[in-house]
Amino acid sequence: MHVASNASRMVVSRKHALQSAALTVASQTSKIAVGFILIKLIAVYLGAGGMGLLGNFMSLVAMLSLMAGGGISNGVIKYVAEYKKQPRRLAEFIGSAKLYSLLFCTFFCIVGVCFSRDISGYIFKSEEYYKIIVFLFLAQFGFAFVNLVCGIANGLRDTKTYALIQISGNVLVVPISWFLIGFYQLVGAAISMVLMFLIYSIPAYFFYRRSFFFRAKIKTKINALAVRRLSVFTSMALVGAVSVPLIEILVRQQIINHIGYAPAGIWQGAIKVSSAYMGFFTIFLAVYFMPTIAGSNNRKEIASLVLRFMAVVMFVFLFGASIFFLLRVQIIPIILSSEFESLESLIKYQLIADFFRVSTYVIGFVVIAKAALKIYIVSELLQGIFFFSASSIFLNLGLGLKGVFLATLLMNIVYFVVAVSGFFLYRRREV
Fold first, then answer.
1. Residue pair 195/177 in contact by the 8 Å Cβ criterion
2. How far, in Å, CA of 379 to CA of 376, rounded?
3. pTM for the whole thing?
4. 293-318 burial, b if ≥16 CB within 10 A, otherwise e?
5. What is the per-residue pLDDT across 376-427, written as a single tens digit (0 to 9) for each?
6. Is the dihedral angle over the CA atoms 143, 149, 153, 159 positive or is it negative?
7. CA distances from 219 to 80, 205, 214, 328 (A)
8. Coil/strand/helix, residue 85
9. Rounded CA gap, 148 and 214, in Å?
10. Whole-Å CA distances, 62 to 194, 359, 399
């Protein structure tokens, strides 16, 4: 009887695991598809020049989606995973995270609204789009709410809720964006970029209303320990926002100054295509890998998991990238438009760079899971400085857009070598 009971539980467990995996794949497939559809719509209606003009706003949206509510999404995943068997500590942590997130959103909103004309002038080269900037900074309250709900779901390993939020949002955003971009061109495309993150708040609120956390009426109050722990992830998110989206804005400005808006649009197209397929690996590691290692302090166990996940990630990426490269002449016009034909000769640099980047992600998630703030800050800032410097040098040498792609490749190779070297040093240290 006891054996039969155990067997039954194992079957249920396997069935649950398969369902979770299927939903995760479905949610990421839908997200990648939506990313490609939006890129396609912008490429068709606005062209490479419009993509270049919209690029800085895309980076600003990416910065705010990362920093919304203090950028604590990975922190929420980590500590919810740790406290899930301690209901009281879990409730206290979530209450603190809610207030912490709200305070950051309010601060960002005040700053964004007050300086909306200045931000619009820099991003769009015109102050007339300041209302879009105001809309974005109001929308980041929704970004933060989604980050909290999804962070809690991932920390509890509730992949079903997370996946359904993603799938529902992805289904909703496509028709709305199609209408906006088709009828309102640049303004519609800018609003669509915001909605791509904001729309998830609708299904997220639905699941929040049905959850224990809504029924329990968790008190919103600040706990000093929770604040100290969350502030580490805020620092990480801030550095991530500076080292990637902000550096992208600066590099894009250099491209525009040296060779114009159309090449900037070609580069932006490559970035968006890259971020679409790289998002699958990021979420896969956040949902499955980080909660697994967050509660472990055994270096041998962590090292074994890193090597196993890295092998899987490298193989899957290499397989997909090889198909993409071989069919690039057919795929790029389908994903973007015929205006992006010059990307066919440059995409190999992006794919090789992404291979090294996705391999480094696995090690990077160990740093995040263990909240190793100093290592994260130094590595991210050095990445940003290296990329900006290399891009500047190559552009000034007259290498044009190819120089920016080469700078991306060099940065990711160097970062991979440094990360792997650091990982082996970590592995050899005694527990």
1. yes
2. 5
3. 0.77
4. bbeeeeeeebbebbeebbeebeeebe
5. 677 778 888 899 999 999 999 989 999 999 999 999 998 888 888 777 776 6
6. negative
7. 16, 18, 10, 53
8. coil
9. 13
10. 9, 22, 28
Tokens linked to 7: 């067997």
379: which residues sit within 8 A by CB, 6+ positions away?
A: 364, 367, 415, 418, 419
Residues 278, 204: Cα–Cα separation, whole Å: 23
pLDDT tens digits along 133-168: 999 999 999 999 999 998 888 888 787 888 888 889
How confident is the model at residue 79, as a pLDDT? 87
**DSSP 3-state helix, strand, coil percentages of the chain (rounded to 5)?**
90, 0, 10
Q: Residue 296 carries which DSSP code?
A: -
Pick from 311, 310, 412, 321: nearest CA to 363: 310
Helices 347-369 and 261-284 meet at what angle, rounded to 10?
Answer: 40
User: Which two structure tokens, joined as six digits, stand for 380?
Assistant: 């991210």
- C-alpha closest to that of 168 among 140, 200, 193: 200
Whole-number Å distance between alpha carbons of 326 and 321: 9
Mean pLDDT in residue range 111-132 = 92
Tell me the DSSP string of 301-334.
HHHHHHHHHHHHHHHHHHHHHHHHHHTHHHHHHH
Q: What is the mean pLDDT of the chain?
A: 83
In this predicted structure, what is the pLDDT of residue 365?
65
